[in-house]
Task: inverse folding
């Protein structure tokens, strides 16, 4: 097990899988979905498009890594309207990925990895975008989708489910190293 996998295992993710980073494809179609702004974060955060960088830049950065570790928080819901579990598990995934990024930094490896999270950055109650610089440029994380990745495709490449079945909620992030 690599140091990165070992640090990830300590965060308690319910599911992890690996694939070659060389197989990752940043797609313009995913950016178009961001631009449709269903999540209402497009042009609202330094961690989201267009401020986070363009698709070609992400593809170029991804090509520099060998491995991709996909990390998932999987929660069981009481029923399909269990919004509390959906929200809580989403926050748990963000916290775990943020803690993992900090553990990687503490191990002196942050320059050798790219960490992609799920959803927009929520480190601040209100993002400063676009009126002032980001408060935590070294801490903010971009999501897999904002980087142009199709999450279901990457999960398949890593040999793990994108969806863990009825009445479950899954959030995915990944670490390239
Ligand atoms: S750290 Fe704060 S200012 Fe920076 S992207 Fe996240 S929410 Fe916005």
Result:
């Amino acid at each position: 097990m690599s140091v990165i996998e070992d640090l990830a295992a300590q965060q308690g993710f319910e599911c992890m899988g690996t694939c070659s980073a060389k197989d990752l494809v940043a797609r313009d179609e995913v950016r178009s979905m961001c631009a449709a702004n269903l999540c209402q974060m497009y042009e609202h955060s330094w961690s989201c498009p267009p401020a986070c960088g363009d698709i070609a830049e992400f593809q170029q950065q991804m090509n520099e890594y060998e491995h991709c570790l996909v990390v998932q928080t999987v929660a069981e819901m009481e029923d399909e309207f269990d919004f509390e579990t959906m929200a809580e598990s989403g926050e748990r995934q963000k916290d775990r990925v943020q803690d993992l990024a900090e553990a990687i930094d503490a191990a002196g490896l942050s320059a050798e990895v790219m960490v992609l999270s799920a959803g927009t950055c929520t480190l601040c109650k209100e993002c400063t975008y676009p009126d002032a610089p980001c408060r935590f440029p070294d801490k903010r994380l971009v999501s897999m989708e904002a980087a142009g990745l199709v999450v279901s495709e990457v999960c398949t490449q890593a040999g793990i489910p994108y969806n863990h079945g009825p009445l479950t909620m899954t959030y995915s992030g990944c670490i390239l190293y």
About this structure: The chain has one domain: 3-176. Strands lie at 15-20, 67-76, 114-117, 142-143, 168-176. Residues 45-47, 121, 123-124, 127-129, 134-136, 140 surround iron/sulfur cluster (CB under 6 Å). Helices lie at 3-9, 28-35, 55-62, 83-106, 151-157.
